[in-house]
Amino acid sequence: MNPNILLYFLLVFSYCWFLEARTDPTDLAALRSLKKQWKNTPPNWRKKDPCGRRWEGIFCNDSRVIKIILPGTNLAGPLPEDIVSLSELQILDLSNNQYLTGHLPANIGYLQNLDSLVLVGCNFSGPIPESLGSIQKLTHLFLNLNHFSGSIPHSIGNLTNLIWLDLSENQLNGALPVSNATAPGLDMLLKAEHFHLGNNRFSGEISPRLFSSRMALKHVILNENQLNGNIPDSLGLVRTLEVIRLDRNFFSGPMPQNLSMLTRMSELYLANNNLSGPIPDLSGMNLLTYVDLSNNSFNKAAAPQWFETLLDLTTLIMENTGLESHISTALLSLPHLESVILSSNQLNGTLEISASVSSSLRLLDLRNNSIDGFSSAAVNRSISVMLDENPFCLKAEAARICNNSRPLRSFIPLEDCAPLPCFSDPIFLSDCRRPYLGSLFFRSFSFSDLTNSLYYAFLTESLQPRLEKLQIPIDRVCLVSSMIDLNGYLVLNISFLPPDGYSFNRTGVSTINNYLNNHIYPSPYGPYYYSDLSYTNFPGPGKNTGLIVGISIAGSVLALLTIVAVVYGYRQRRIAQLAVKLNNPFASWNDGNVPRLKGARWFSFEDVRQCTGNLSHESEIGVGGYGKVYKGKLESGELVAIKRAQQGSLQGALEFKTEIELLSRVHHKNVVNLIGFCYDKGEQMLIYEYVANGSLRAALSGKSGVRLNWIRRLKIALGAARGLAYLHELADPPIVHRDIKSDNILLSDHLNAKVADFGLSKLLSDHRGQVTTQVKGTMGYLDPEYYMTNILTEKSDVYSFGVVMLELVTGRMPLENNKYIVREVRETMKESGYIYNLVDPAIRVDALIGMEEFVKLALSCLQDMSDERPSMGEVVKEIENMIEANNLNDDVESVATSASFEGGYRYPYSSNSNVSFGSSATASSPFIK
Q: Which of 209, 382, 785, 786 could cross-link with 796 by S-S, CB 3.0 to 4.6 Å?
């Protein structure tokens, strides 16, 4: 080729390339820092220029980045300090990326053009930076559902343009700040319409200066805190209020009389406080739909007549409030009334349900009162009347009314979306496709009849058309189930179904998240937030031969252009080098401030190097998404397994600390022992006892060289069950493991079962033995009720253990070749009553003594409803009885005391092919065939 033509070509290509590479250099350096420190960034972030080549989730105005919208895309890592270099950034939405961890940058206030900061449902921790209060343009601040701690900075009061403040579901404490001579406070947020501060640890009295008639507040949400003193009268001055939630605090004294002046009020929640004095007159609140004043110490009085004036009322809850006299028929005749709950009062006389009773009434709970008569003229009405613990129930004619009270189901599944097995069974049917699943949490709502499908019509009549206008390909938006959770929130578990044969891409998932959590979509009821189930079924990049050829040519040409662009490239590298190191998620664990943990030693990095031969390749015994695992030998001669987190590990800081804090307090022969941990020189390592024979999964698959006969499998089931029973019943507070699977049951040199890997565990500190939390676990083992309700109990572990029991019988993984072992066993048992054809061929030659009882016990653990499953203590007793009844205690085959880890065998602490939500492996959709 003529050299002049080649030179001309190079110059033209160079000119075009520089025209395309148009992102501002400072912005480019900041984005490259994000790319470097985050895991799971979109594939097209490999392109050179974010603005010119349109990085996914990055929106530019000419050369400047103005929006980062990447919610629900499984990003992992910290929020780098360099993000503050994006000086033109207006919207930052990273919500529902649960692996984003660490502290917010202290200098985040440099983002002076930021309008919306949306970090809902991440795992950020530490204090809210003071500098946040300097972003004058900020209108929407959503930091809810994280782990922020400390007090609310007074500087937040400087955000005079703020409309929405949501700091709920964190660990914030202290008093609610109000302005003084030297500092601003929340009372200065006169444009704010939403104070959402519930589910924190705020304490002290609310200053009367917090509220004023100049405010534009619609929602004041302060439930589940530790606030005390009187409810300030100034609250009644905010005439724009529509929702008040002050329930589950320690407020005392009488209710402000001027609350009745809040004529726009729709929902009022003041339950579970220490309020006293007369029951307030709410007759001026003509728009009230939902009233809950339960469990307060009001003066004893007849049921107020103002009840009967609230024509829009759907729900009245006044348990244990000192009500006397009788229930008027006028109250029960209110046209929209759905639920009346007046239990544990002193109501008396005859309960009369007239023919004029509301056609909407579904529940009338009058348990534990003094009612001595009952009559009903309401025939063919579906009303649940609950009269237990009343004198009337002692009469003979009361048999059909009393002793018939059943607890309400924790959730109500509706099948207008897809067959219910699509959501309880990880193997999706052909018509289930690959939906994107999430939950809308309404902090207040105007109804209580969850079975009325009209309340959910907004999903298809409003939400779906709006999303379609945003060019998201959606076939249906529909309801999986609805429930009232432990916080008193209405939870709608919903499914976004793509067209047949399609999956949602990152843009689709991000748009749905942003549309909901940034409240672009108007609330059909009260204030809400959106939490999703990690979606990883994103379509891969399409193959394009021309594009591949073009990239190859461009790569060659760009290599030549390096000489031309050396100055520019050098400058860019220098800018990129200014990116600061990862935020330290363990700032509180600096030298001298490591918590004192019972039974767990702190090891220096040098200690670890010495006991592993300088972390040599020869000492490696496994590798996974969390990092590498090394075998080491301490000075005492004790063998240990050392789990070393790689930089940006998906397990992350939260799980690292959780595992240390939990394992250091539990000691049982069937729970793996934590020897210590290393937090030194930027390293995170967990040091366990060395468990010689690997995991149960490795043994069942034959990879560890250990043969397990049937009787040995029974013994392993018993050992693992004892370990779990200890966690549930003897640990204080109880611990739910949340990721029980055969990979997390380890086998010692004598094949004693040990429960391991506590990275996802939760403490059940609630006296009800349950906690509402985001769904995490491993598909195939995940409790369907936990998935649909977000309510975690120890029975979720029982379900997972039932799956492990079936693994012991069949030798199969739960999900294998598009077959779900739970469904296979259920169907086979239903057809023939025995599952010999499903039994692991490795044990068919054994005497399968107790097999039938064992399978039946496993299926009882796998009941869809948690209250129908046994406890782990009961499971232990059942397996013990099987072994004792068949005289199997001493009939244990001799086994090797060690196992080979050669031939590709992966050590139990490494990850595996099963996919976990929130674990070290990359999460995948539970509904992919």
A: 786
